[in-house]
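Whiteboard transcription, Tuesday session. T.W. wrote the structure tokens on the left side:
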């Protein structure tokens, strides 16, 4: 049975705006805020919305979290270490709060949405003032108002994730790069992944709402947008007769923004139509993040990925044939339950065959509530460490090879700021999503400039501006 998607009503949004106004009138309200963000780009974009709401409530950003009146942790729970890190940092604030008892502490996001976590926060973290899940982010004005007004803890987690929320204020981190969420949730239920349980089932925003947001960004001078979704390739599947993801890309590319990125793409849903759109549309960046997770068919089946090694490689061949300049990146999980040395070698051989620009590599982390958490065949931690070290070393070789192939080429680079290594240099990302450092004037920040690649290091490229273009 398909879960019905509900759009938050204008009446409910007006109610939250009213809470924001009433909060501003509270005499002992917090005046400053600091948001700590963990996890993916979706979380980063959620934090921009949280910041927008807080500023509508009259708060201003503090330079440091220990100086803020209200510290909000926007959490991730995709891996155990992300959860432990978030809870450790929340606990650290307990000591700060002893010195500044007026400080308020909030926890929100995926971790709070996890089954049982709200109760755990109530029991084990009594110094946390506000906690809420991913499904009621729009209720921040009401929740914080109640916490301040009553001086009691407020915890709210929706039972179902079936809503779409439009019209939230956003405080974007950049004037020239922006996230645009096109869909929420996931229907795939990979056996290791908690996301469908904390983000809910897939809900696609309407193409008209997305286009209005993109057109507004274009008018404000944004040079690059990243379209976000847990699986952007399945955009529109929950809207009978709706726009497909490739069709949406084509519509958005006509809005006048120079560069469009997107993630994440599930390999099973990567269509020939999308490959064709990437090949012919110059506005789409020449980068595709295509998580493979494993190179063994046995492990892919246990993960419930619903593609095979062979079908994945076939799609890679199609991409390379249609658009040879597209750089591929991926995610890989090592030491999944039941992974043998032969299974791991299948992953290593796939990495050699594809030749990724880069890869995010992880040792399997069990998540309570997922099927994989109860699977037999846990890999010894020492073996897991050896395997991921071998994989990282191999990927470094592949990255070096990919980067070396770009020396002498011309790349269009969106300048994002000064290089961390040298204040005399600028840095930015080329269309292929690789960082490039080069000399240039700070007034180029926010612009797209032509750069010739002159050298490569392990993680970045070096270049020089091509004058007169």
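and on the right, the sequence the group agreed on:
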């Amino acid at each position: 049975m398909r879960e019905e998607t509900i759009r938050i009503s204008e009446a409910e949004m007006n109610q939250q705006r009213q809470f924001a106004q009433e909060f501003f009138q509270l005499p002992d309200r917090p005046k400053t805020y600091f948001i700590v963000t963990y996890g993916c780009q979706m979380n980063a974009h959620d934090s921009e919305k949280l910041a927008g709401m807080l500023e509508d409530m009259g708060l201003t950003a503090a330079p440091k979290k220990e100086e803020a009146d209200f510290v909000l942790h926007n959490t991730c729970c995709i891996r155990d270490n992300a959860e432990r890190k978030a809870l450790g940092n929340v606990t650290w604030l307990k000591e700060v709060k002893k010195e500044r008892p007026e400080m308020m502490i909030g926890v929100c996001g995926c971790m709070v949405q996890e089954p049982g976590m709200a109760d755990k926060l109530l029991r084990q973290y009594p110094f946390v003032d506000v906690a809420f899940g991913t499904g009621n982010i729009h209720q921040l004005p009401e929740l914080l108002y109640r916490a301040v007004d009553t001086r009691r803890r407020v915890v709210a987690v929706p039972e179902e994730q079936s809503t779409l929320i439009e019209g939230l204020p956003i405080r974007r981190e950049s004037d020239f790069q922006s996230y645009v969420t096109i869909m929420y949730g996931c229907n795939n239920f990979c056996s290791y992944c908690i996301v469908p349980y904390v983000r809910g089932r897939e809900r696609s925003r309407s193409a008209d709402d997305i286009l209005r947001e993109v057109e507004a960004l274009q008018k404000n001078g944004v040079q690059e947008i990243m379209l976000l979704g847990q699986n952007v390739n399945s955009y529109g599947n929950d809207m009978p007769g709706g726009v497909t993801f490739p069709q949406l890309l084509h519509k958005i590319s006509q809005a006048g923004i120079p560069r469009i990125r997107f993630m994440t793409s599930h390999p099973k849903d990567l269509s020939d139509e999308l490959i064709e759109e990437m090949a012919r549309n110059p506005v789409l960046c020449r980068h595709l993040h295509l998580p493979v997770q494993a190179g063994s068919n046995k492990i892919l089946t246990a993960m419930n990925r619903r593609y095979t090694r062979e079908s994945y490689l076939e799609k890679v061949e199609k991409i390379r044939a249609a658009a040879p300049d597209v750089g591929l990146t991926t995610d890989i999980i090592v030491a999944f339950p039941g992974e043998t040395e032969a299974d791991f070698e299948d992953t290593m051989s796939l990495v050699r065959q594809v030749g990724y620009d880069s890869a995010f590599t992880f040792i399997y982390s069990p998540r309570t509530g997922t099927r994989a958490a109860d699977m037999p065949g846990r890999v010894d931690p020492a073996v897991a460490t050896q395997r991921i070290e071998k994989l990282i070393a191999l990927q470094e070789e592949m990255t070096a090879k990919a980067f070396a192939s770009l020396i002498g080429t011309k790349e269009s680079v969106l300048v994002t700021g000064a290089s961390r290594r040298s204040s005399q240099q600028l840095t930015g990302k080329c269309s292929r999503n690789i960082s490039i450092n080069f000399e240039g004037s700070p007034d180029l920040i926010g612009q797209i400039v032509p750069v010739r690649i002159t050298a490569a290091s392990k993680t970045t490229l070096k270049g020089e501006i091509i004058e007169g273009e």
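Someone added at the bottom: The mean pLDDT is 94.
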